Amino acid sequence: MNPAPHRSIFDRGAWYVVIQAILIGLILFGPQGSLLVSAEPLKTIFQSCGIAIGLLACLIMVIAAINLGKNLTPLPCPKDDAELVQTGLYRFVRHPIYFGVLLAALAWLFIFPYVFTFVYVVALFILFDIKARREEVWLVERFPAYKSYQARVNKLIPGIY
């Protein structure tokens, strides 16, 4: 384990967190545009699925945060005293908190199926992919074992990506 040199909050990736907060704010409160699904039976099914997915997303985020323990930070740069976690939900996906947030965003889209919300959710996925790439550069520098972990565990979506 190589300790990270002292870096400012922005050198540790705070810009990613700022953009992430803006996108989540847009998903929740931004302009929505026109409806993607307006037929009533289908809209009700989507909303029901959205609620179920949202509950699952919250559970995933809480469990992943517990699994991460003292390593938890909103910044993509690991803490100076971080340890590599490969257990719990981290056995199935390298970034389960990001996965949980993406599921929550998808749930919101199912409940409020608007064009702009869809765009914001796609943008959040792209941001998490970019943020995870940067985070993983730091993780590989800090933990040589991270390379083999990357080879066997998907990045953002278990079993898919």
Automatic annotation (TrEMBL):
Coiled coil: none annotated. InterPro entries: ICMT_MeTrfase, Metal_cation-efflux_comp. It is a multi-pass membrane protein. The keyword Secreted does not apply. Gene3D superfamilies: 1.20.120.1630. Keywords: Membrane, Transmembrane, Transmembrane helix. This is Isoprenylcysteine carboxyl methyltransferase. It comes from Polynucleobacter aenigmaticus.
